Structures are given as C-alpha cells and as structure tokens.
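Quick one, tokens below. Sequence please?
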C-alpha cells in the first residue's frame, strides 16, 4: 500500500506543478480583464508624460537646429518611436468610454480583455523604456563645422598678376616650419582678398584639412575669436577652462595695416601688399565700369580718374561703379573736378587719394536728404531700401550673413565717419570699454551722438549740453551693470529729433524727457522701466518703439500722440492693459506691431463704457501694417479685417500650430517645416494663421486676399479652401499649410465655380491630418494653376489617393521636393490618365518636370498618358 501512495503523491505533485504553470498565463489574462480600466487610465497618464517629454526634446532640437548643430541619430529615432507609440495609444484611450456593452445587454468582455492587455503592453514595453531613455538626452546634438561662405572665389582676383609672387611666397611659408605668416598694407589694398585666395588654394592642395577665416576688430575680443574658431572647427566648450586647443599642425595667416602688430604675433618677416600697378588698375576699372569707357570722349577722363584712385582696389571698384551709368563726358569732367576739390584733413598723406574716391562716391549718392518729400512710413521704408541697394551697388555697403543685414568695409566706414564728423560734428564710440565725452565746446556744436556696444560710465554728474543735437543713439555693452540716467539728463538737447536708448534700465522715465518737444522718433527697445505717461507729452512723435521692453500698461496719455505713425509693442510680454480709446485716438497711425503681447482686450463694443482697449478700435484706424496675435477668436469683431493691408503678420487662435515634426509659432516668427531649411527663411511680408473654434466666412477675410503665407489649422465650415475663402484663387499666395481640418474635402474645386487660375504664385503646399481630404483638385483647373509650385508635403491624409493627375495638372516645371507619409490609401503620387473634356481636341499629352529629383537622380522630365 505504501508504493501506490507514493505514486499518487508524485502524480499529485506533478499535476500541481503543471497547474501552476498554466495558472500564470490564465491569471495574467484574468488580470488584463479585471484591471481593464486601471490599465487604460495608467496608459493615459503615461502617454501624457510621453507627450510632455516629446515637447521638451522637440524644443531642444529646434534650438539646436537654429544653432546649425547636427541632431543625434538616437534622438531622431526616439522622436519617431514616440510619435508611433502616441499614434498607437491615442485611439485606445479615445475608445475606453465605448466598450461597456455588447448589444446593450452585458459587458463586452472580449474588447475589455484586448484593450486591457494592449494598454498594459504599450505602457510597460514601449512607453517606460522611452521615458527611461529620455534621461540620456542631456545633449540632443553636436556642433558641426559650417560651410565657409568666404571660400567662394573672387572673380576679380585673376586681374592682379603682380601679386602672384606674394601668393606663392605665402603658400610656401605655410608649408615651412612652425611660424606664423603675415601680410600688411593700407585699408582697402586687397589683403583680405589675397589671404582668402590663399586659403582656398591651401584647402584645394590639402595643405590643411580645415581652413578657418575669422575677422578681428580693432577692440580685441579674445573670447569671441576663440568661439568663432571653435564653431568652425565643430568644437564645443563645456567650461571656460576648456578653451585651450592643441595648436600642433595649425598655422596662423594674419593681416594688418601695419608691420609691427604682425611681428608681435610671431610673424618674423611680414610681407607688404603694394598698390596695383597702372595696367592692373585700369583693367579692374574697365572691368567694373564697362567697355564704354574706351570711347574717345571718355577714355582720357576715365584714365585720369583711375590714376587718382592710387592703385587702391576698393577705391577703383567703388568709383567705377559710381560712374558706370554715366555716359556723357560732362559727367566725367565733373567727377574729376570733385576729385581735385576733396580735402580730407583727418587722413594721412598716403590715403588722401583713397579718401577722395570714397567722398566722390558719397557725393554721387542721391540720398543725402533722404526723407524730403516723404509722407508715409511705407514711402520712407522704400526710400531707405533703395538707398541701401544704391550703397551696395556702389560698394559702400556689403551684403551681410542674412537677407536683412549688411556690413561695411572698415576703410569705407572710416571715410564715412570722417565725413560725418566734418559735416555733422559727429561723436561716435563703438565697442569701447574706456572712453570720454568730447570737450564741452565740441559737444555744443555736435549734431549726432552714437555710442554703441560700449561701457557707459557714470552719468550722474548732470546733463549733456548739446543744443544742436538732432540724433542720440546709446546702448551699453552686453553684460554691463545697471546704468542710471539722471533726471535732468535731456535738458540740454531741446533740438533732439531721434532718441534711441537700446537695452537700458531706468527706475522711471526722466521728467526731462518731456522737454524734447521736437522729438519725432523714440526707441526704448529691450529696456526696463515703469511708467510711460511722460511720453504722452511728446506731441510731435511719429515713431514710438517699445519692443521687448518691460512696459506693463499704456495709459490714456499715450492717446495724445496724434502725429504717431508707427507703434511697435512687439514682444512686450508684460503688457496686459491698454487704456480705452488710446489706439483709436492715434488717428494717423499707419503701422501697429503687437505680436507677442498678452493684452487683455475688452469683449464689448466700441461705443460703451469700457475699462480696457477693444479690438473694435482698430477698425477706426487707416492701418497699412498690422502684426497681432489674438488668442481668443471669439472676441474678434465682425468686419475687422475687411480693409486691405499692405503688410501683416496676424495670428488668430490660441497656441502653436503643430503637425507631425513640423510647427508654426503663434506669432508666425518661428517655422519648423521639414521641407524648409533654416538658412532660407520665408521672407513673406503678409502672413496669416487661423486656428479657430468658430465658423469664419470669406466676407470677413476680404483684407487678406493678398496673403503670401497662409496657415489654416482647425477651421469650422471650410470644405473647399479656394471656394470658401477666396473665390479668386489666392493669386499672391506663396506658402499654404492646411492641417487638422476634418471638414476639408479638396483644396481647389473647379466644378463648383467657373474655372480660373488658382495659386499662380504658390511655391509650397503642406497638407497634414486632413482625414476627409479626397482630392487636391476637383475638376480641371486652368493650365497655369500651381505652375510655380516647388514643394509638396502631404502626411496623414488617409482618404487621399493621389497628389495630382494628368487631367488636373498639366505642368509643374519648378517642382523640386515631394514628401508623402502615412497616407494609407495613396495609389500613386501622380496618376496619368485621359479624361473626356468638353472640347475633345484638348487632351493632355504629358506632364513635365524639370527640377524634380529622387535621391540625387533626376526623374524623367515627363510622362505620357495611358
């Protein structure tokens, strides 16, 4: 009996073990069902954490890209995985309220089990590892060496044959022992042109792996130089003590105007750059001015003028450009006469001739009284822009690093300062730590004061006695401490017309400011101060800029500025209160900038007792320019935007517009779109972003028919973008983004309305998350529609089957980029087909592409119908 008992015990033990083995998965499955609600709630909480983490990483990525840094591949992969998991989890969370019953009788246990299990798996296996991985993302990028724009060859360098020997000597010295190489010569002689050409050749011959070009100002800023070199080398300093870089294998090629500084920098035998010889000077002059100067009536005069340029390349090019449009001998005679009358008292003998050339170019400019006959801000802007182009064409200004900036050759700047000092008794300080005001007698005749990026000393001794002063610009060096301006500081400046105090700090605005009765421009950008009521006493003020300042409210006194034409309150993020009727009283206001403000607008109408300003007030102004960010679309008055604006950047609706990895900021200042590179910003002057909870009608948008950049995010009542918003087809629109609009069925519907040209100027088309979009074009638009399109980006448009077909798009000659993602019903990018037209003789035979490429290869230029 014992043995059977033992066998039974063994059998029971085995059964129990097997039972435990089966019980684990059965129990776990039961828990999926039992904890169904908790699993979904936990998933929702974790998804929100993941979204917050995603936003944090995205902001770091955008900041890094703006700093031209390369994003780590692990970060890009993490972002893609996060987007995928969120996309997978959100439908599960959205459906958790709809799983209660099966046919209305009992709980749907199968669905609960599946959802509970999926929620648990996503949370544990996907989200938790992603959140854990976030801890490794202290840095999302690493610096990259920028492509050097200065490597572009100078088209005129080949004309300087006499410098070949210097070129070869310097290039050979770079291969020699570990000594620095230096060249010197007067300003404008061509030192920079020469060393850049040497740098290009050194890189071409692979003498050095990397060639870095850095400009050094008169005031030495070692930290800036180190950072510039490090940036070009792709080196990033974590701490101040890490700025020492191993110099082995490196060489310095230095330029200076004098020999001595180069010797102090370790250049034992600096090479001097001489002026161009006669033949080279004439060749450069002729190349710049044109062959017409070889004519009998001009040649002798042109040669005489060229000789007076003293072989100085910058003078030759500047004068030749100034005279290239002069075709009559009398004009050249007058130019020669001006040369002989120039008297540069402040220049040494060796550069007097060069000074004369600069002054001649200055006299030929027609912008000396640039605002004569100018009555509006737009006219003034056009005049200034035209003058800048003239200055660039005359080589007195150079193009800057961005489309909005420009620079000036240091020799030209010296000449300009000398002329201003002579004619306008200018006092100028730039990038200085220690400096002093001019003698009081000098200040009494001074007309212009410019103190820029310099340390401001103690001003408490009293006011500046400058009875002739017309323009006063002052800003402190970055990082300097608080500058206190005494209350009586402006007493001696009663003729002042322009006052620009940038980045200053005030305990309060000085009462003596109210004495500046002739002041026409006041700029207190990025300054800190409190009460601004005193500004209301400046009755002649035409321009008031408080951009980025600490102003908290605009009192009723500002409404007294009835001559004001431009008011800039951009980025005044502390501004909440504007007194009622202040804006409507500015009857001559042409341009209003309010992006980045958090103004508390009064909701009620215009003709009632109010405590704050109302948007209704804007309807009573004759604005040509408006930049404003209105968070709540419910407070926008009817017909506010029926008047046509020349320039605008308007955002209606709260928050940023986000679509996939792309975004557009609420104030339209920042745009991160896959197809656009950061070094090629959208330069449109008319931008509109709509993100509305209420229905909008085309009658209320009549003023926006000239829009150039349009972002449509969450609009009610819009099925057809062109038909519902602008039946004329947005003839000036360059960039269109439509996203998160479930009601949009098509972009252009030629069936509903008479066929006409649509999007003639459109360059980029971005469509995202249009879940009911079936076609971009319904019917057949005209042949010129979309003819300038360069970029198409489409994502998460689940019903869209193709981008274009040969029946509704005949030619896309400028198309360069197509990006399509997550369009699950997409059958093809372009569909070639035949359609029966009203006119059977008009059949599309082919669609042509000229610039479209795929992974470095050009696609076929056309397709044939099938």
């Amino acid at each position: 009996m014992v043995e059977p008992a033992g066998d039974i015990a063994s059998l029971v033990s085995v059964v129990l073990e097997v039972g435990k083995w089966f019980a684990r998965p059965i129990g776990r499955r039961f828990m999926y069902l039992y904890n169904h609600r908790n699993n979904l709630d936990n998933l929702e909480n974790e998804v929100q954490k993941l979204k917050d983490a995603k936003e944090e990483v995205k902001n770091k990525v955008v900041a890094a890209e703006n700093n031209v840094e390369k994003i780590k591949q692990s970060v890009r992969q993490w972002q893609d995985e996060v987007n995928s998991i969120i996309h997978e989890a959100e439908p599960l969370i959205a459906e958790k309220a709809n799983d209660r019953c099966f046919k209305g009788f009992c709980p749907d246990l199968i669905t609960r089990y599946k959802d509970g299990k999926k929620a648990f798996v996503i949370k544990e296996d996907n989200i938790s590892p992603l959140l854990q991985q976030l801890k490794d993302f202290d840095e999302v990028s690493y610096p990259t060496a920028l492509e050097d724009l200065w490597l572009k060859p100078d088209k005129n360098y080949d004309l300087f044959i006499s410098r070949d020997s210097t070129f070869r000597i310097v290039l050979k010295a770079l291969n020699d022992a570990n000594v620095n190489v230096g060249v010197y010569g007067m300003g404008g002689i061509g030192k920079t042109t020469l060393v850049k050409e040497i740098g290009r050749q050194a890189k071409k011959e692979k003498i050095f792996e990397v060639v870095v070009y850095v400009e050094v100002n008169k005031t030495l800023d070692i930290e800036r130089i180190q950072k510039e070199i490090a940036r070009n080398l792709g080196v990033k300093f974590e701490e101040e003590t890490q700025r020492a870089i191993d110099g082995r294998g490196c060489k310095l090629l230095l330029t200076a105007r004098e020999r001595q500084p180069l010797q102090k920098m370790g250049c034992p035998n600096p090479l001097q750059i001489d002026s161009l010889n006669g033949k080279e000077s004439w060749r450069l002059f002729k190349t710049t001015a044109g062959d017409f100067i070889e004519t009998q009536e001009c040649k002798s005069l042109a040669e005489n003028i060229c000789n007076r340029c003293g072989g100085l390349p910058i003078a030759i090019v500047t004068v030749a450009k100034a005279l290239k449009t002069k075709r009559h001998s009398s004009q050249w005679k007058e130019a020669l006469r001006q040369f002989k009358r120039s008297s540069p008292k402040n220049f040494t003998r060796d550069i007097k001739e060069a000074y004369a050339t600069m002054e001649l170019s200055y006299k030929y400019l027609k912008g000396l009284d640039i605002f004569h006959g100018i009555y509006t801000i737009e006219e003034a802007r056009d005049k200034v822009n035209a003058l800048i182009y003239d200055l660039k064409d005359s080589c007195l200004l150079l193009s800057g690093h961005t489309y909005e900036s420009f620079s000036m050759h240091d020799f030209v700047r010296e000449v300009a300062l000398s002329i201003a000092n002579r004619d306008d008794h200018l006092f100028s300080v730039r990038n200085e730590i220690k400096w002093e005001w001019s003698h009081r007698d000098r200040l009494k005749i001074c007309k212009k004061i410019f103190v820029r990026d310099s340390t401001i000393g103690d001003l408490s001794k009293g006011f500046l006695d400058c009875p002739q002063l017309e323009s006063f610009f002052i800003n402190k060096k970055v990082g300097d401490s608080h500058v206190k301006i005494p209350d009586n500081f402006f007493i001696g400046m009663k003729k002042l017309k322009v006052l620009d105090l940038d980045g200053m700090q005030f305990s309060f605005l000085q009462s003596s400011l109210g004495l500046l009765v002739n002041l026409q421009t006041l700029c207190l950008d990025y300054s800190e101060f409190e009460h601004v009521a005193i500004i209301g006493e400046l009755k002649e003020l035409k321009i008031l800029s408080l951009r980025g300042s600490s102003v908290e409210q605009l009192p009723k006194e500002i409404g007294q500025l009835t001559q004001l034409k431009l008011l800039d309150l951009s980025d005044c993020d502390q501004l909440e209160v504007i007194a009622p009727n202040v804006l409507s009283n500015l009857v001559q206001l042409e341009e209003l900038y309010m992006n980045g403000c958090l103004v508390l607008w009064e909701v009620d109408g215009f003709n009632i007792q109010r405590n704050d300003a109302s948007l209704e007030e804007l309807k009573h102004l004759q604005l040509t320019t408006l930049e404003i960010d209105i968070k709540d679309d419910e407070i926008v008055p009817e017909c506010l935007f029926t008047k046509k604006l020349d320039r605008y950047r308007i955002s209606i609706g709260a928050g940023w517009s986000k679509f996939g990895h792309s975004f557009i900021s609420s104030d339209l200042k920042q745009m991160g779109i896959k197809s656009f590179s950061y070094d090629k910003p959208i330069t449109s002057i008319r931008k509109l972003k709509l993100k509305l909870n209420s229905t909008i009608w085309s009658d209320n948008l009549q003023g926006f028919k000239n829009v150039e950049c349009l972002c449509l995010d969450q609009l009610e009542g819009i099925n057809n973008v062109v038909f519902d918003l602008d039946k004329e087809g947005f003839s000036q629109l360059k960039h269109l983004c439509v996203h998160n609009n479930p009601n949009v069925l098509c972009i252009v519907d030629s069936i509903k309305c008479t066929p006409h040209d649509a999007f003639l100027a459109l360059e980029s088309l971005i469509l995202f998350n249009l879940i009911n979009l079936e076609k971009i074009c319904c019917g057949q638009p005209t042949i010129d529609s979309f003819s300038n399109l360069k970029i198409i980006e489409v994502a998460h448009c689940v019903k869209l089957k193709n981008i274009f077909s040969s029946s509704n798009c005949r030619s896309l000659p400028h198309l360069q980029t197509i990006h399509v993602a997550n369009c699950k019903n997409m059958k093809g990018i372009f569909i070639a087909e035949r359609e029966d037209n009203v006119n059977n003789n008009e059949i599309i035979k082919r669609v042509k592409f000229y610039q479209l490429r795929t992974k470095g290869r050009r696609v076929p230029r056309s397709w044939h119908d099938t």
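Residues 2-34 form the longest helix (33 residues). Confidence is low (pLDDT under 50) at residues 1-24, 677-681, 838-845, 855-866.
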